[in-house]
Amino acid sequence: MFRKLLKILLPLFIVVLLFLAGIKLFGAEELDQWLNRIASDPDAPVPEEADLALHRSMFIADLHADTLKWDRDLLERGLWGHLDVPRMVEGSVALQSFTIVTRSPFPFGRERFQGTEKCVDGDRLDIANVLATVQGRPSDSALARAVYQIERLKEAAARSRAEGRTELRLLLTAEDLRQLVIDRRNGEQVVGAILGIEGGHWVGAESASGSVEKDMKMLFDLGVRQFAATHRFDNGLAGSSEGCERYGLTQRGERALLAAEALGMAVDLAHMSEAGMKDAARLLSKPLMVSHTGVKGQCVEPCRPARNLSDDQIRLVLESGGIIGIGYWPYAVGPSIWHIADAMEYTMLLAKEMGLEADAHVSLGSDYDGSVQPFFDVSELSLLTAVMRQRPQPFSNEAIRNIAGLNVCRYFARILPGGSDALALDICATPSSDGAVPDLRSGSTRR
Ligand SMILES: [Zn+2]
Asked: pLDDT at position 437, please?
């Protein structure tokens, strides 16, 4: 028995040891460089003047980036990774969700399966903990790791104001979003940030306050406005799409999502199991959101179907009036940059079939700095506008404006505290053909 156990455990122990030694030896910075590379596509388009002109004129918003996990200064242009404020300015991005990862199971070892599919075992050694330790950050709990990342964003925001650089502004209310739109329209150098959680593992657990509502209120008070219950493994709130059991919402999960909705947080269903998404759709009354995904129906190797949405899941989000952020990396969409727009088009066709406005539900979900290799960093985002305009069946400029940011603008204008449908229509409007936009100061629409 002992020998048998030794035979299983020893190789695992050696792999873990080598991995840890690797992180220690190369350092967190090298890990960041290695995990957050950029995938090249020789068939990427060359943006034309008209692509660039449209790109620069849009309100651009992205639903997912894990940048706070790494030790780069958000205010300095990084030499690696995918996103920081200077590169957001180069890519014309107005609004970015900064999502916080606090647990990542060790990727190697004895495999577990769900049916015939490999699954992610949440009981494995937590690499997020190891990374935080090596970085010298608080590491003892998932909550401590989350709070630290929240503070990092706030510190960068305060410094951006104090030093008179491009302002990084944390948005907490619908009014903050309105002000961001106005200030950018007036030419002010400001980018907006939404704080998000990717995996609320501790919410309602004995190790935290023991109360779901208290833990959610704490996150809200800390400034979190986007909440994904799950990440890549099943947790106390819900099963994950890549988990080993993939159950639906637990009682804790139901209470967490209801609390998020009542507080004015976006409920992000990225990574959730199919059963969990169905439960959430039944439970919630506001529009649903999936911050970063591909679609199973348009998934070309090496795209991984398990982390992507099925047609039924897409329909659940569309029926709720929600939005789906499409990712930019090969595991989400396929081997070519053109597949990003194919996944978008697939979703738009489903919407059309349902009698909905085709381009009102698709948005950007880069997963920048999420240990993925997108086809471009945020400074080169105009490539995506070029893809949408130069593909064999080009998207209209209006559709591109909606996808690039107006859908996200409308979504948050409805969901954030103080938000409403009227505000969404008012501040997230498409310019008319003569370029006129609503006059937000008077609160009425002027053409
Ligand atoms: Zn993710």
From this structure: 54
